[in-house]
């Protein structure tokens, strides 16, 4: 990865190479930490963070869910992200990774007395699933892992611990020759990708599963707003794997993945086997918004 100059750690701008933790950092052992993934795009008016408030709110909600008391306010965390991008003077698109973790000083599972630490890193990052994927689409495997059960984990939190499930699914998909995993819930309905939400298109209707077993995705919400504005009919309902196989189009959404078409699932070609028309329309609209080319969505951008 490409290093930046500084990482924000507990209120200080620390040189990238010095942003270190002790090996007895609580989160490293017991997995209670929460994070965000936010993007900033280089617009005609300079770098702009997309939906900063929504991402920062979700970060604080994630901490609330996993019972971590954060020593910073929403505004302080927003300002830290803005200032970090200024201090690093990036010349292209960046990915921002705020992380709230439990530090060094207490061991044992009772986490409440462990120090709460906050770090925010940002670095230059291109298309998560590849530039080619954005245009041609990717190949996806339904995972042998069920998505984290709501009976034992809390998927509304972007919690570090939830990503073991994602990581194993992604690993399995890649070693089997695919690019991404699609996880079903314990009942067999589509939950989400390892780090994305799913959309399918059938007979002109845009369909996305409810967020019962997935993160409340900000990109999914943006796509739904675009669809609403364009008058595209939308259904939020359960989807099975065979319905994905016979969809006219399918795509993933996520801050990192942006809008990535899916061209194949488990050896079944989706639609024409390349980016579908509605996918292209929504993807174009999404990029117009994040790059500041649609004045109606200016309120979603925070200029640096
Ligand atoms: N699901 C999971 C498990 C994720 O990690 C992500 C990425 N944050 C998403 C969905 C998409 O969420 P968002 O659009 O807010 O990035």
TrEMBL record:
Enzyme Commission no: 2.6.1.42
GO molecular function ontology, one term from the record: L-leucine-2-oxoglutarate transaminase activity
Enzymatic reactions: L-isoleucine + 2-oxoglutarate = (S)-3-methyl-2-oxopentanoate + L-glutamate; L-valine + 2-oxoglutarate = 3-methyl-2-oxobutanoate + L-glutamate; L-leucine + 2-oxoglutarate = 4-methyl-2-oxopentanoate + L-glutamate
CDD domains associated with the record: BCAT_beta_family (cd01557)
UniProt-listed InterPro entries: Aminotrans_IV (IPR001544), Aminotransferase-like (IPR036038), B_amino_transI (IPR005785), BCAT-like_C (IPR043132), BCAT-like_N (IPR043131), BCAT_family (IPR033939), Class-IV_PLP-Dep_Aminotrnsfr (IPR050571)
Family label: Belongs to the class-IV pyridoxal-phosphate-dependent aminotransferase family.
Name of protein: Branched-chain-amino-acid aminotransferase
Species whose genome carries this gene: Nitratiruptor tergarcus DSM 16512
């Amino acid at each position: 990865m490409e290093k930046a100059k500084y990482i924000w750690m507990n209120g200080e701008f620390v040189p990238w190479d010095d942003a270190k933790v002790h090996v007895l950092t609580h989160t490293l052992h017991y997995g209670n930490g929460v994070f965000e993934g936010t993007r900033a795009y280089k617009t005609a008016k300079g770098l702009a963070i997309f939906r900063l408030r929504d991402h920062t709110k979700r970060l604080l909600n994630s901490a609330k869910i996993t019972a971590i008391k954060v020593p910073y306010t929403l505004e302080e965390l927003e300002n830290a992200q803005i200032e970090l991008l200024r201090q690093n003077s990036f010349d292209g698109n960046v990915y921002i990774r705020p992380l709230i973790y439990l530090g060094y000083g207490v061991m044992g599972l009772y986490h409440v007395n462990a120090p709460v630490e906050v770090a925010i890193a940002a670095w230059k990052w291109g298309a998560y699933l590849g530039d080619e994927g954005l245009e041609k689409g990717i190949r996806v495997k339904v995972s042998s892992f069920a998505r984290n059960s709501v009976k034992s984990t809390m998927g509304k939190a972007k919690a570090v611990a939830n990503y073991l499930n994602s990581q194993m699914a992604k690993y399995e998909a890649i070693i089997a020759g695919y690019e991404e995993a699609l996880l079903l819930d314990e009942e067999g309905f589509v939950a989400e990708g390892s780090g994305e939400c799913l959309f399918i298109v059938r007979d002109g209707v845009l369909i996305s599963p409810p967020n019962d077993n997935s993160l409340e995705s900000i990109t999914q919400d943006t796509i739904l707003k675009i669809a609403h504005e364009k008058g595209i009919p939308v259904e939020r309902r359960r989807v099975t794997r065979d319905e994905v196989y016979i969809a006219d189009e399918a795509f993933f959404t996520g801050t990192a993945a942006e809008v990535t078409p899916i061209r194949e699932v488990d050896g079944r070609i989706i639609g024409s086997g390349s980016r579908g028309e509605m996918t292209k329309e929504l993807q174009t609209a999404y990029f117009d918004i994040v790059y500041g080319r649609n004045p109606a969505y200016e309120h979603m951008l925070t200029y640096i």
